[in-house]
Write a structure and sequence with these properties.
Chain B: Its cofactor is Fe(2+). Chain B: Its EC number is 2.3.1.234. Chain B: It holds the Pfam family TsaD. Chain B: It catalyses: L-threonylcarbamoyladenylate + adenosine(37) in tRNA = N(6)-L-threonylcarbamoyladenosine(37) in tRNA + AMP + H(+). The complex is a heterodimer of chains A (about 170) and B (about 400). With about 170 residues, chain A is an alpha/beta fold. Chain A has a single domain, classed as P-loop containing nucleotide triphosphate hydrolases (Rossmann fold), CATH 3.40.50. Chain A is built from five helices and seven strands, in the order αβαβαββαβββα. Chain A has a seven-stranded mixed beta sheet with strand order 1-7-6-2-5-4-3. The N and C termini of chain A lie far apart (about 35 Å). A five-stranded mixed beta sheet of chain B has the order 3-2-1-4-5, with helices on both faces. Chain B has a five-stranded mixed beta sheet with strand order 8-7-6-9-10, with helices on both faces. Helix content of chain B is about 40%, strand content about 15%. Chain B is globular, with a radius of gyration of 24 Å. Chain B starts with 6 loop residues before the first strand and ends in a 19-residue tail after the last helix. In chain B, β7 and β8 form a beta hairpin. Classes of the chains: A alpha/beta (about 170), B alpha/beta (about 400). Chains A and B meet through β3 and β6 of A and α2, α5 and α7 of B.
Chain lengths: ~170, ~400
Amino acid sequence: MSDHRLSAIQAANQVDFISHSPAQTERVGLRLGELLLPGDLLLLLGTFGVGKTQLVRGVARGLGSDDLVTSPSFVLVNQYRASPRFAGLPIYHVDLYRIAETAELTTLGLDELWSGEGVCLIEWPEPAAPTLPEAYLAIFLQHLSETKRQLRMAPFGQRYVELLNAFKETTFS
Amino acid sequence: MTVEPKTILALETSCDETAAAVVQGGRRMLSNVVASQMAMHQRFGGVVPEVASRQHILSLMPVVERALEVVPGGWEGIDAIAATYGPGLSGALLTGLNAAKAMAWHRGLPFVGVNHLEAHIYANWLLEDPRTDVPAPEFPLVALVVSGGHTLLALLRDHGDYELLGQTRDDAAGEAFDKVARMLDLGYPGGPAIQHAAQGGTSAMTLPRAWLRDSFDFSFSGLKTAVLHRVQERRERDAQLLRPSSEKSSASPGQPPPSTPTSRPQPQILRGKRSLERSREPTEPTAPVAPAPKSALDPRFVGQMAHAFQESVVDVLTTKTVEAATRYNATAILVAGGVAANVRLREELSRRASVPVHAPSLALCTDNAAMVAAAAFYRFHAGLQSGWDLDVVPSLRLGQ
């Protein structure tokens, strides 16, 4: 799992902070989820146990979904539904952990998930790097200690710079 | 009332395998053909969906033809067709479902879509030896479905009458096996690799168990992370031992040696050792975890971790399943799914349960079409049949 295109880039306007618990990671996701719009794409980068699925759980809650959010590592895609307040938007929770190579993801129609009506979150997105749109919000997660995680949000494209600004407003002010 | 179709041809294409089978009366297997893509995926270290979908298309008709070879009268001997419609990979599911619908339409046969999870449970109805007549399981039953994508506990009151008692809140048990195997540099598939490595371990080391009190839900994410932390710790220690002392200083000057574990078991999971991490509180991201040069882990350490991990998973699965069986007066426990092949899980369930524990043979634990045909038989039996408009449901749940 090492595609340098995704992990080496540095974006302006990025936001760093530290989460002290899974609950806090989920709250960050919730704040972010409330601000998402159809067509938004979030990439979650980081190794095992850093809280990628936990963050997605928060995003789903932020979009008013009560669906059970679990790891899609084996099933590749979980789909949740946002509440009516968010027009019942589909939330696609994708996990490319099991994809060993940059295969033709189009055969599965996966590319439709991140160009469609829904909100799309991708864990282990490296194999899809060459097929991804230019604009997305990348979230790098990493272990600091057993319970602490560093989260770095890096926006690519105007939409995500604005999203992150709105996020900073609602979360830190 | 339609006539109950006795002999069913079923297709299964939800993930790895392209499978077709013919089963009579829901129990007697005439054929059970699985074209495994395991070898191919093994080469890539995981499921490659592009390989999966394309391979299903290539393998499907040869597999169906093989399955029909042994049926007296061939197609004439088939009363109905079934296929898995979820959960699974949508592209893969579509291949099997559409092929099954087309064949049924063309031959004027009834068609029914089957839930893959339900099918796993019905593997327990299949007769391993077609000449014997072991009685079918009697309701009420408690079923534990454990695979790479799913972990759930269900109460079965009758055919088609299920209650989901609990399920995983994060990772599936099989997924945890797979990821821990990867952390320990064991091969793919992770289940057999862990089981094999665990034989070299003892119960000297223990890992946390997430009990989630008063619930039949499961959680294996914390256990996975606990293993990761121990492996990281071990790698850092190995790296420090290997590195000349002058290079150590930059990372952690004056850091105390890894202390002996001080913390007693604590209520929450994810507790344990933390001594190595405490000294660095970076304000900017450093390199990703485990920056230490990756050398081979000590096989004894790997054995201990594999053992401790397996015991933790087996303990939680067994405890909850036995509890559910007692609470709902189950006549037996049914185990299904790929992890049901785990020998320790079978042993421990049989040891602790007061009712019989049934698990299919290894070949019927993993994905196959015979289990789909068995489930389909009882769906027809209950008067259920699918319309031509049935679509795949990639996130289908049990009882839906």
